[in-house]
C-alpha cells in the first residue's frame, strides 16, 4: 500500500488536531479526530476489499509486421458476489525502447459482470516479447492510500512482431519459366493443375473446393481430388548472421535490414505460390515453403546474430543441397565476399543475386545470371529491391 499526497495531508491534519486537543480538551476536536481516523481506517481497508475477486486476462494479442500497429484485448470479470467500485487496470506493453502503460478506469463492476477493453500500440521493433502481469489498483474511496496487486491473470502474454516489409510491385527470378528445370509434384491447389490423378483422403490444409463428394459420401470421410502440376525450382534466400561482420545497432543494424529484405521477398513468393527456402547462416534448419507461412515469420521474429563462420564457408556447405536451376539470393554486410569464386555456384543455380548492406563501397555488377548491389544508409530500400530484381 502506498500513501498518496492527499493522504499525507490528512495524516498531518489528524496529528495537528490531536496535539491541539491534548491542550484544549474540546469535545468538537475529539469528534473531528475520530472522523479523520475513521476516514484513514476506511481508506486502508476498502481498497483491499475492492481488489479481491477480480479476474483479468488478455483474450487476444494481434501479431503485426514491424512498423505496423497491433491490438491487445483485455477481459475483466467480477467473480465475487459483491459490486466492485473505483479501480484501475494497468497493462504494460513490453516495447523494446520505451515501455508503454495503458490504464483503464472502472467505476463499477457488478457481480459476474464482464468488461472488455482494447487498445493499440505500435510494433516498434521485430522480436518476441513477454507481457508483464496486469496490475489492478484502487484509491477508493477517498484517495488517501493506494493499494495494488497483480490480477488473477490467465490468457495470452506473448507479443510477436514480424520483420518489417517493403512494397515491391514485381520481382523477376531467372529460374521462372524454365520448363527444363521444372519438376512434377502433386497438390490440390487451384491455378496449378495440369492433370487429374485421382482421389485421396483429405489432409489438413487441403482446399475444400476440391472435395470429391461422391467418394466422401461412399467412404463416410472427406476425400479430395488430386492433380499434378509443374513447379519451378525454389528460390533460396541466405542471410548472413555472422556476429563479426554486422554493422549498426538496433533497428538500423545490417541483420535487421537483411531480415526485412528477406521477409519482403518471402511475402511476395508466398503470395505468388512460388517455392522457396530460407537459410540463416548460423541455423541448421531450412525454412521452406512447405511450412505454414506464419510459422516462418514467427521464426524470423526470434532470429539473432550468432556464430562467426564466413558466408563463403556456409555456401560451400549448402551447394550440394541447392536445386539445379534455382535462384540464390544472399544478404550480407561482408564486403570481402565479392572475392568469392562463384563458378561452382553458377554451374548449379540459374542466377545469383547479392546485396551488400551498409557498405561504404559502391558495388554494381549486372550480368545475365549474376547481380551485385550495395545498400547504404539513406538509400531507399524499395528502390534497391526493385533494382536488384528488375528484368
Structural description of this entry:
With 391 residues, this protein is α/β, with parallel strands linked by helices. The protein has three domains: 1-162, Immunoglobulin-like (Sandwich), CATH 2.60.40; 183-231, no CATH class; 235-388, Rossmann fold (3-Layer(aba) Sandwich). It has helices at residues 5-24, 27-51, 213-219, 254-271, 293-301, 311-318, 343-346, 381-388; strands at residues 2-3, 54-61, 64-65, 69-78, 84-93, 100-109, 114-122, 127-130, 135-138, 145-150, 152-155, 158-162, 183-187, 195-201, 223-231, 235-239, 276-280, 287-288, 327-332, 351-357, 365-366, 370-375. The strands form five sheets. It has a seven-stranded mixed sheet, with helices on one face. A five-stranded antiparallel sheet has the order 1-10-9-5-6. Residues 176-193 have low confidence and may be disordered.
Strands in their spatial order, largest beta sheet? 18-17-16-19-20-22-21
What is the total tally of β strands? 22
Named CATH architecture of the largest domain: Sandwich
Percent helix:
25-40%
Features:
5-stranded antiparallel beta sheet, alpha/beta, 7-stranded mixed beta sheet, Immunoglobulin-like, 391 residues, Rossmann fold
Amino acid at each position: 500500500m502506498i500513501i498518496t499526497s492527499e493522504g499525507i495531508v490528512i495524516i498531518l491534519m489528524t496529528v495537528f488536531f490531536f496535539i491541539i486537543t491534548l491542550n484544549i480538551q474540546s469535545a468538537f476536536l475529539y469528534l473531528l479526530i475520530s472522523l479523520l481516523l475513521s476516514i484513514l481506517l476506511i481508506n486502508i481497508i476498502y481498497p483491499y476489499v475492492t481488489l479481491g475477486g477480480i479476474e483479468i486476462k488478455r483474450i487476444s494479442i494481434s501479431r503485426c509486421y514491424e512498423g505496423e500497429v497491433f491490438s491487445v484485448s483485455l477481459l475483466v470479470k467480477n467473480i465475487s458476489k459483491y459490486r466492485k467500485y473505483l479501480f484501475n487496470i494497468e497493462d504494460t506493453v513490453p516495447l523494446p525502447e520505451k515501455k508503454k502503460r495503458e490504464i483503464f478506469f472502472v467505476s463499477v463492476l457488478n457481480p459476474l459482470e464482464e468488461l472488455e477493453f482494447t487498445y493499440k500500440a505500435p510494433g516498434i521493433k521485430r522480436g518476441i516479447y513477454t507481457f508483464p502481469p496486469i496490475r489492478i489498483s484502487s484509491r477508493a474511496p477517498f484517495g488517501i492510500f493506494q493499494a495494488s496487486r497483480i490480477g488473477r491473470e490467465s490468457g495470452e502474454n506473448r507479443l510477436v512482431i514480424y520483420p518489417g516489409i517493403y512494397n515491391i510491385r514485381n520481382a523477376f527470378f531467372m529460374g521462372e519459366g524454365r520448363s527444363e528445370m521444372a519438376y512434377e509434384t502433386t497438390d490440390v491447389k487451384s491455378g496449378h493443375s495440369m492433370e487429374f490423378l485421382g482421389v485421396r483422403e483429405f489432409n489438413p490444409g487441403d482446399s475444400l473446393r476440391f472435395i470429391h463428394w461422391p467418394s466422401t459420401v461412399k467412404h463416410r470421410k472427406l476425400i479430395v481430388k488430386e492433380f499434378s502440376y509443374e513447379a519451378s525450382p525454389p528460390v533460396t534466400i541466405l542471410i548472413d548472421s555472422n556476429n563479426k561482420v554486422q554493422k549498426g545497432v538496433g533497428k538500423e543494424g545490417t541483420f535487421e535490414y537483411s531480415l526485412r529484405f528477406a521477409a519482403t521477398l518471402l511475402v511476395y513468393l508466398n503470395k505468388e505460390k512460388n517455392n522457396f527456402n530460407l537459410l540463416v547462416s548460423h541455423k541448421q534448419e531450412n525454412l521452406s515453403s512447405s511450412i505454414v507461412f506464419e510459422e516462418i515469420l514467427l521464426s524470423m521474429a526470434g532470429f539473432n546474430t550468432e556464430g562467426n563462420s564466413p558466408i563463403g564457408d556456409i555456401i560451400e556447405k549448402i551447394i550440394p543441397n541447392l536445386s539445379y536451376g534455382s535462384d540464390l539470393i544472399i544478404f550480407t554486410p561482408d564486403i570481402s565476399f565479392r572475392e568469392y569464386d562463384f563458378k561452382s555456384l553458377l554451374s548449379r543455380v540459374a542466377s545469383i543475386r547479392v546485396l551488400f548492406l551498409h557498405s561504404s563501397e559502391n558495388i554494381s555488377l549486372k550480368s545475365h545470371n549474376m547481380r551485385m548491389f550495395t545498400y547504404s544508409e539513406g538509400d531507399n530500400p524499395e528502390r534497391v529491391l526493385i533494382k536488384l530484381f528488375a528484368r
